[in-house]
Amino acid sequence: MRKDKQKVIGEPMTDEQVAVFLNARPYNSNESVELHLLVRAYRGLRVEDFERFLVMFKAAGHDLNAVGADGRTFLAIVREHAQAEDYVAALEAAGAR
Known about the structure:
- The chain is mainly alpha-helical.
- Helix content is 45%, strand content 0%.
- The chain is built from five helices and no strands.
- The protein starts with 14 loop residues before the first helix and ends with a helix.
């Protein structure tokens, strides 16, 4: 990066940019589509954008409480992450159990 260029982190995303996260599909056919979408959004979106993603996710008919092969929901997985409090709150507000 050139010295006269500033690095921009956390730039607001448009709804169209957030909605792109709904198009991802798992590489493994045994993996839950819902969990795959949630993981990708969690890893790639700021919490404000993740909250908007959750609205779109539910509107598309996806299940926030889908379980993976280990029988855990995405909320159960994220609760184990040390710095995920805001994401946990967003999931709970959206109706995840």
